[in-house]
Amino acid sequence: MMRMALLTLVAAVLLSAAAFAVQPDEILDDPALEGRARALSVDLRCLVCQNQSIDDSDAPLARDLRILLRDRLLAGDSDDEAMAYIVDRYGDYVLLKPPFKATTLLLWAAPLITLLIGVFIVVRILRRGSPEGAEDPEDLSDEERRRLAAILKDEPT
User: Fold this and answer.
1) What does each C-alpha distance from 9 to 5, 12, 15, 58, 96 come to in angstroms?
2) Which one of 44, 74, 128, 148 has the largest count of C-beta atoms within 10 Å of its C-beta?
3) Residue 77: is its pLDDT beyond 90?
């Protein structure tokens, strides 16, 4: 029973690690504005982390972006205006779900292109068969078989 309680406690601490990313001095006094900031920061990528939102990251740049977002909301920006300001400043890469447009086409197509290249390589390898110049053992003459047997017999195993 004690072991189960300990495991539950450890799991709760590990799963709540993201809750510690937003520092107390960043939290806005107005609960409505803070709720908007948290909702928006979930969609913004930490630029130094691997696919982590700024809401979940404790990196200094993520903190700067959270503060910038809150400053824009305090200045009276709508959600769209605050997001547009950050995207204008950092580019579409700052969005965890970038829009589909000409400048992000490669980003959206990269997985498909990679898959097609992989399939092409596998098909080429399979069609090629054995390398050129390699002979099938059945195609060896009696003399070649004797030489091969002698070579293999002399080699340590």
Assistant:
1) 6, 5, 10, 22, 31
2) 44
3) yes
